[in-house]
Amino acid sequence: MKRTGSCLIFNPSAGQSNPEQDLAKIRELLEPSIELDIRFTTEDLDADAIALEAIAQGATSIIASGGDGTLSAAASALVGTNIPLGIISRGTANAFAAALELPDTIEAACETILGGLTRVIDAAKCNDRPMVLLAGIGFEAETVERADRRAKNRFGVLAYLMAGIQQLRELESFEAEIETADKIIKLTAAAITVANAAPPTSVLAQGPSGVIFDDGLLDITVVSPVTRAGAIAASYHLLQTALNESATERDDVGYLRAKRVIIKTDPPQKVVLDGEIIGFTPIDVECVPGGLTIFVPAHVALSSVVEKLEGLPDLTIEAKPNNGFDEV
User: Fold this and answer.
1) pTM to 2 decimals?
2) CB distance 312 to 187 below 8 Å
3) Which one of 39, 84, 188, 219 is most buried, counting C-beta atoms within 10 A?
4) What are 265's strand-pairing partners?
5) How far is C-alpha 143 from the geometric centre of its chain's CA atoms?
C-alpha cells in the first residue's frame, strides 16, 4: 500500500544534468512506495510558495529536488512545522546537503527518504526571514554575488572559488558591532558569517570546530585579515580546519556562539542569506531550536565548540549589565 501526501517540488533548471532523466530516476525509485504530487518551480513560482500551497492542501511531507536555492526555499516554508523535508540535491555546489550531512546523489537521497528516518534540527530567522544555512556579511556576500548563473553553468562549484579569488583583490575591511545577550563586541572585519549549518566549503563560516545544527545556538565567525595575503592564508586555514574538524587558531579569525546576535557595520555591508543577496546590514539573527524536520540516513553526533576572539584587530568587548536584549 502506498504512502500518500508527499509533494515533490522539482526545479527543472537546476544543475547541469538532464532534468527529464533526473525526474524519471526519482519517480522510478520513489513511486513504488510513495504517491508523488509533482510540482515544478518556474521563474514566477518559487519552492517556498509551492511548499506552502501543498501544506495548505494537506501534504504530510515535502520532497525538494534542485539546487541550494530551491532546497533552502522549500525548507524555509517548513520552519516551525513538524512536516518532514526530503532533500534531493541536483545543484552546482550542493552546499545544503553537505551542511546537513546528507547524500548528494539521486539514488542515495531517495534511499534516505524511503528509509523514513527523520531528525529535528535548528533553523533561524534573519531580519524575520527564515534561515536554514547561513547569513554572510561582506566578503561572503560579495563572492556569492559574483558567482552568477552563467559562471556556475560553465564552471560548476569552481565558479564560487573563482569569484572568491577575484573578490580578494578588492578586499575591504569595515567596522562592526556584534551584540549578543551578554556582551557587545566592537572590531574591524572583512567578513562575518552567522551560521546555523554550513558545509566545509563555506570556509568563512568555519571558525569553530564544526558548525552544530541542533544545539539551539548560532555559530558566528569573524575574519579580519590585514592584507590580501592574510585573507588568502586565513581562507586556506579555515578550509583545513573545517576538513579536519578542528577549531581555528589564527589571530585574525575569531568565533563565538549565541542564540541571538545583532550585527551593525560601518559602512553598511551586503548580506547574503542562504545563497541569496537580501540587502544590507544591520541584521538580527535568532536561532529557532528544533525548527525543521528532515529525512536523514543516520544520526551523527557532533562536538562542542568554544569561543575565541582574542587577536582580532581593534577589538573591544563590553559586558551588558542586563544580560539580554533590549526589546523595541
Assistant:
1) 0.77
2) yes
3) 219
4) 176
5) 15
